[in-house]
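Hey, I'm writing a tutorial for new members on how sequence and structure tokens pair up, and I'd like a real worked example in the thread rather than a made-up one. If someone can provide the structure for the chain below, I'll link this post from the tutorial.
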Amino acid sequence: MEKDNEFTLLKSRSSQACIRDGYKFYAAGFRQIFRYTWPLAIVFAILSAAASALPVLVSPSLLLAGAALALVSVVLLLYTASWRLHKRQLLQKAEIKPRLWLRHLGMVLLVGIFCLFVVSVLAMLTCLPTFIMMAANWQSQMGVINGDPSGMPEYVRWLTIGVFLLAGFIQAYVWLTFIGPTYMLRGSIAQREIERKEFNTKKHINNEEKAIVYRP
């Protein structure tokens, strides 16, 4: 994929081009990405299923603990997936100092907000079965608290866990859509900094040459 000029890492792009080329990169390389990250997706599915099960199957008071576990699982997924894809040379490295992200903060925010919007929409669509199972379990628990017998069969608990695991596995590849646009964003920032340094160097040389020419 890196041989295609469309997916060249070190290329000055606008934020819209980073988003467009990033999603194209993810779609074009999905087979390879899946091959290298499916074990990570399984681990993420287990962690996210545990995060969903804590407030649903254990106790509603564990809602914050479940949310914290879900956040940690997302961070670990994105970090380990990026590391693995770099190790497999599916992604190329572009070293950027932290302060440079601040210099290009507008582009970073635009790409990040758009990616979060896409993830939110896809998450809402793919998590509908999870929301249904959560609602059913919470309704049953509220009935038990009020003194009513539980109307949920025993197998529903295992069905709920299975739904959480399947949804978590799908969610892994929803979150991994971040990789493409942020990869192109990193390359664009690196290339812009290279071009800026070259421009400043040429400007400095030209100024020195002019000083020599006009020196009395």
